[in-house]
Amino acid sequence: MSDIRIDFDVLDRVRRDIEHIGELMEGPGREMDEVDGASMGVNMLAARMNDFGDEWSYGIKQIKKFSDVAVKELDKVKRAFEHLDDKLEAELRKSRENCA
Length: 100
Fold this sequence. Notes:
The protein is mostly helical. Helix content is 83%, strand content 0%. The chain is built from two helices and no strands. It is rod-shaped and about 85 Å long. The model has no long low-confidence stretch (mean pLDDT 82).
């Protein structure tokens, strides 16, 4: 029989880190979305800067979206293991009471 051990402190830290990454990237994403290529002066550079800003903003939004999903899934994993732990504890307690 093997022991299953979930380190909830590590799980919580990973969850917070992933959530923080999403939050951290929102600011630069908004700023790049607001970049006006016309301020570059050269038409070709202005167009490319607008494209870059749009691509950057989209990428950042995707990172935020994926980090939000990862956080929700990590929360589900933690709840599932906590529930399993509670059930195992109850069964062990019941087993001890029956043996006594």
